[in-house]
């Protein structure tokens, strides 16, 4: 087959156009893939921020409860300390709810297990510990409530730390 210059130019133009189209298609595909990964990383970073906020609120609650126990001889709790505990319990519930709504299906059970520790911890501090202090309870009763606070407070810290490590590993 004899190719004329015209046919050769058309073939070269067609190959060049197809090459440019393929390159544009690949650029678009990889751009979309990168944009998806960036969105996933931003989501994980936001989730990690929620986890860190929850860890800080949990730590502050537990430390405030320990302060209550140390100052139990006063027989009452200072109102600002009660407010700090209530505020941190609210932060844990609200932030935990947002976190639960934003995680993927694979992480919902993990986050739900963390959220299940909030109410027993808050009740242990806001209701049980407060009642013990106000009634000038025995050291044995304080030891029991201290165990409850340790169980749920440390349990939540451990679970939040493990979940944070999982988020960091992904991205």
Question: What can you see in these coordinates?
Answer:
By secondary structure, the protein is mainly alpha-helical. Helix content is 88%, strand content 0%. It has helices spanning 5-70, 79-102, 105-115, 118-134, 139-170. The longest helix is centred in the first third of the chain and has 66 residues, at 5-70. The chain is rod-shaped and about 105 Å long. The model has no long low-confidence stretch (mean pLDDT 91).
Structural class assignment = mainly alpha
- Main sheet overview: none
Task: Classify the beta-strand content into a percent band.
Answer: under 5%
**Element order: H for helix, E for strand:** HHHHH
Uncertain residue ranges: none
Q: Let me know the number of strands.
A: 0
Count helical runs. 5
Mean pLDDT over the residues: 91
Oligomeric state of the chains present here: single chain
Distance between the termini: 57 Å
Radius of gyration: 29 Å
Binned, the helix content reads over 70%
User: What's the overall geometry?
Assistant: rod-shaped
